[in-house]
Amino acid sequence: MSGKEILYVSYKDEPLEDGVSYAIYLAGALHEGLRVVLMNRDGAGWMSSEGAGTAKVQSYIFERCRKEGVKVTVHSGLLSTTSIVRNIISREKIDLVLLSPLVTHTRKVLNKLLKLSPRPVVTMAKASIQNKTAEGGKVS
């Protein structure tokens, strides 16, 4: 491992397969660690205590990363989302920032994160129904 990390920013209630699989794949392919920030939907802060849903999400991320051989850290705390991301970028060896599809779609949060990051920011788009049908998938 190079000692560098990818910072993956997602909403804690976002469907995991929409982005975390790509974040894990990218970290493994680049031989880097993965640092995950799970935001509240309103972007105002983090949960004050670990709920069952958050614990389940963290467990899923840890297990997937273990299977892929990717070192992972998942953050939780009480700071505002942009503050914690700024702190992580300034003190950690972050190579790039990867934003989940829903964070990318939320323009207000996206713009804040783009402004504060001195590292490359990679955005993800959710696959549309039209793209899925073009690839041969069925839509019900």
Topology:
Layout lengths: L4 E7 L8 H10 L3 E7 L12 H17 L3 E4 L5 H11 L2 E6 L1 H5 L1 H10 L4 E3 L5 H6 L6
Parallel strand pairs: 1-2, 1-4, 2-3, 4-5
What does this structure look like?
With 140 residues, this protein is of the alpha/beta class. The protein has one domain (5-134): HUPs (Rossmann fold), CATH 3.40.50. The protein is built from 6 helices and 5 strands. It has helices spanning 20-29, 52-68, 81-91, 101-105, 107-116, 129-134; strands at residues 5-11, 33-39, 72-75, 94-99, 121-123. Strand 2 (33-39), helix 2 and strand 3 form a beta-alpha-beta unit. Helix 1 (20-29) runs parallel beside helix 2. The radius of gyration is 15 Å and the shape is globular. The model is unreliable at 129-135 (pLDDT under 50).
Q: Descriptors for this entry?
A:
140 residues; alpha/beta; Rossmann fold; 5-stranded parallel β-sheet
- Cross-sheet strand order for the largest sheet: 3-2-1-4-5
Low-pLDDT stretches? 129-135
Query: What does the radius of gyration come to?
Result: 15 Å
Give the oligomeric state of the chains in this entry, treating copies of one chain as homo and distinct chains as hetero.
single chain
CATH superfamily: HUPs
Q: How much beta, percentage-wise?
A: 15-25%
Helix content: 40-55%
